[in-house]
Specification:
Blueprint (H helix, E strand, L loop, with lengths): L1 E5 L8 E5 L9 E11 L1 H7 L19 E9 L11 E5 L12 E5 L3 E3 L6 H5 L2 H14 L7 E5 L4 H12 L3 E6 L4 H6 L4 E4 L12 E6 L3 H6 L4 E9 L11 E4 L6 H12 L7 E6 L3 H9 L6 E5 L3
Parallel strand pairs: 8-9, 8-11, 9-10, 11-12, 12-13, 14-15
Antiparallel strand pairs: 1-2, 3-4, 3-6, 3-15, 4-5, 5-7
Helix pairs in contact: 3-4
The structure holds NADP nicotinamide-adenine-dinucleotide phosphate.
The site of NADP nicotinamide-adenine-dinucleotide phosphate has 29 residues, from helix 1, helix 3 and helix 4.
C-alpha cells in the first residue's frame, strides 16, 4: 500500500510517500481502508521533534497520523462492534504511533465509532482528535451547564470551532476570542459574543466567565485565569497555567474514547456539530499540508484525502 513514512524528525522533507506492506488486523483490531486522514498540530510538532515524541518510544521508521475515516476491510479475533463494510472514524492509538497517513490502518476496536451518515470521509477524518479534545475538556472536566458563560480562546481554530458548537449545544452562553479573520466563522457557529484578541485584552473585555476553555497556551494561558470568576473553572489543552486558589484548573492530554466519539457522532448526525475543513490535500502532498498547518491562522482543519 501507499503510505507516508518518516525515518527521523525534521522539516517536511522527512515525510516520504512510499510503498509499504499492508497491515493486518490482530486480535481486538479493525483493518480500516482509509479514505481520509486528518491533520492536527501535534502531527507537525511531533514530525519536528517538538510534540509528543517522548511518548512514542523508538518508533522509526514510522507512519505518522492519528485521525482517520474509512471503511472496515476486515476484523481481528474478538472484535464485536464492527463488521466488514462499516463506515468508521476515529483517533488511532493516540498518544502511541497511530499510522493513519496510509491506505490501510489497523486500529484497536476501542478507538473507532461508526461515522455519521450525513458527513463525508474528509469531514469525518477532521473530527476525532479535535472533537474528543473539546468534548473531554468541556463535558468531562469542566462539566459545563446550560446558562453558564463559557469562553473559548481561538474560537475559529481546529479545536476551538468544535468547542464553540459543543458549548452552544449544552446551552451555554459562548464567548469566543478571535482575530478579525476568524470572526465570520465563529459567528456562523453560534458564538454569542466575540472578542478581537488583537485589539483588546480578552481577559477584561467581558464580565468574568464561569469557564475558560483555552486552546492557545503561552501568554494567553497565563492571562486566562483573570477572565474566570471566583469558583469557576479553567481548562487548558496547551500548557500549565499559574495556580489560583479560587478557581479549578485542569490541563490534560486527549485520549481515545469510543463512548465520547459516539456522542460526537450523534451530535454531527443531528446537525448540532459541523467540522470546517480549511483544505484537503492528496496523501502524496503531505508536505504542503503540514506547511499550511504550520503557517498558522487556520480556520478549521486540514485533511489528507487517501482515495476511494
Ligand atoms: N492537550 C491536548 O490533548 C490537545 C489536543 C488538541 C490540540 N492541542 C493543542 O492545542 C492547540 C490548538 O490546536 P488546534 O488544532 O485548535 O490548532 P489550530 O487549528 O492550528 O488553531 C489555531 C487557531 O488559533 C488562533 N490563534 C492564534 N493565536 C491566538 C491568540 N493569541 N488568541 C486567540 N486565538 C489565536 C488562530 O487564528 P488567528 O491566528 O487568525 O488568530 C487559529 O484559528 C495546539 O497547540 C495543539 O497542539 C492539545
Amino acid at each position: 500500500m501507499k503510505a507516508v513514512l518518516m525515518y527521523q524528525t525534521g522539516d517536511v522533507d522527512v515525510m516520504r510517500y512510499e510503498d509499504v506492506p499492508k497491515p493486518e488486523a490482530q486480535a481486538g483490531e479493525v483493518l480500516v481502508k482509509v479514505f481520509a486522514a486528518g491533520i492536527n498540530p501535534v502531527d507537525w510538532k511531533t514530525r519536528a521533534g517538538k510534540g509528543i515524541n517522548g511518548l512514542l518510544g523508538d518508533p522509526y521508521p514510522m507512519i505518522p497520523g492519528w485521525d482517520v475515516s474509512g471503511v472496515v476491510e476486515a476484523v481481528g479475533e474478538g472484535v464485536s462492534h464492527f463488521k466488514g463494510g462499516d463506515e468508521v472514524f476515529g483517533m488511532v492509538r493516540f498518544p502511541k504511533v497511530g499510522s493513519a497517513y496510509a491506505q490501510y490502518v489497523a486500529s484497536p476496536e476501542s478507538d473507532l465509532a461508526i461515522k455519521p451518515h450525513n458527513v463525508d470521509h474528509v469531514q469525518a477524518a477532521a473530527v476525532p482528535l479535535a472533537g474528543l479534545t473539546a468534548w473531554q475538556g468541556l463535558i468531562e472536566l469542566a462539566d459545563i451547564q446550560a446558562g453558564e458563560r463559557v469562553m473559548v480562546t481561538a474560537a475559529a481554530g481546529g479545536v476551538g470551532h468544535l468547542a464553540v458548537q459543543i458549548a452552544k449545544w449544552k446551552g451555554a452562553n459562548v464567548i469566543g476570542t478571535v482575530s478579525p479573520g476568524g470572526k465570520e466563522l465563529a459567528e456562523s457557529l453560534g458564538a454569542d459574543e466575540l472578542i478581537d484578541y488583537t485589539s483588546q485584552p480578552f481577559e477584561s473585555a467581558t464580565a468574568p466567565v464561569d469557564v475558560v476553555f483555552d486552546t492557545v497556551g503561552g501568554e494567553t494561558l497565563q492571562r486566562a485565569p483573570k477572565a474566570v470568576k471566583p469558583g469557576g473553572r479553567l481548562v487548558t489543552i496547551a500548557g500549565r497555567p499559574e495556580e489560583r486558589n479560587d478557581i479549578k484548573v485542569y490541563s490534560f492530554l486527549v485520549r481515545p474514547d469510543a463512548s465520547h466519539l459516539k456522542e460526537i457522532a450523534t451530535l454531527m448526525a443531528a446537525g448540532h456539530l459541523k467540522c470546517v475543513v480549511a483544505k484537503a490535500f492528496p496523501l502524496s502532498e503531505v508536505q504542503a499540508a503540514h506547511e499550511m498547518g504550520e503557517a498558522g491562522h487556520l480556520r478549521g482543519k486540514i485533511v489528507l484525502e487517501v482515495g476511494q
